[in-house]
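user: Please review this fold.
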Amino acid sequence: MHVFRAKTAGESHAETTRIARRLFVSPPPQRMVLPIVAFSLMESYLLVYPGLDGFRVLLGGAAVGVPAFLAALATVPVADRLGGRMYFRRSFLLAFVGLMIVGAFELVATVALTLYSLVTGVPYLQRIDRVTVLGYGAVFWSRQVILSATSNSKHLHSLPAASLHPVLGLIGLAAVLPFRLDEVVLALVAYAVFFGTAVAYTEIAKRPLLRSFGADGLTLLRSTLDHYTEPEASGIAELETFFDSISVAARVRVGGLAFRVGSRLKALF
């Protein structure tokens, strides 16, 4: 008969730490290579759907995948150069998440257009590149918010690293699909709108802590994540500074219980 035993405080703390590391620690970059390639080919197929041209799929896969890999590699030095904090594990995961967002936009558009074509009998609209550009705008938004929270809370300092994937993705699309000048301008305007809403969102998100404790919530979040993933002296110092700023000095009387056998101390609680 199996007897269930309650966990001690130390065991519970250790288990909580393991769960937190699984949630917050990004996978190694090499584990992201195949998912990025797979999603690149899938999104390329959606761009040429309903046709099935292997060469166009491979070419489109390169146009989608190469910008993702370049963004994953370049995000780290760009963010570090501007005073942020970034690691290749995070940057590769961020590139993969970006492809997931673009793929979701393309998939929804493809399903909707296919159903519309089947119901109305209208030929399927061949190009969904504008939807893809809109998806890259959403990638820009998510990267700006994430980098503001995990790398550098100053928006203009996070902007170059955040814009890498959407800008390179737009260049990749323009290399394989005909884009007019007005379409490029429209895409840049959409990027600007997404950037503005990302800045507004992060400012709203950090306002409660800033109002209550005078601390930047995004900086605190970055230090907390670093404490879980890549502990560094600077991140630990930022956390200690925050808790020192909200703490109150107090004299606390602590009682102890000691057990002795003769002159020897056996236990102390």
